[in-house]
């Protein structure tokens, strides 16, 4: 995979809306919170209940649907058990950070509450920043299924 640096133009956090969904953007802000590092499963192995054959299913965003049928042509198996310890199951380090927009003095004086955005870091980006760091984040916007309906940036 590749990494993009100095991507222009920077998007103001206030302009990140649902119409940014699926788009690649860059924004600057201050890290205000970092989560603990967790393993994120990117592929999960499933064992066929009939013949024991194993198939690996990709997990976009950590969500999966069960396989519909066994990949062995002679087998008609339709029940599967996830196997987290299989070598076909893969995980990456994952961390969530909250980034707050940079505000000018007159915005602060107007008493406006700064906007924040949740960003997901994976692999080598995990543990790369701490609260107080000023960062430029580039990534694809996705809508998180949270109660607040906040927009999440996925690296």
UniProtKB/TrEMBL annotation:
Main location: nucleus
Top class in the EC scheme: hydrolase
Pfam families, A to Z: MCM_OB
Subcellular location: Nucleus
Span of the signal peptide: none
Entry's EC annotation: 3.6.4.12
Location of the MCM OB domain: 13-143
Family membership noted in the UniProt record: Belongs to the MCM family.
PANTHER family: DNA HELICASE MCM8, DNA REPLICATION LICENSING FACTOR MCM FAMILY MEMBER
Name the record gives this protein: DNA helicase MCM8
Native species: Neodrepanis coruscans (wattled asity)
Origin organism lineage: Eukaryota, Metazoa, Chordata, Craniata, Vertebrata
Gene: Mcm8
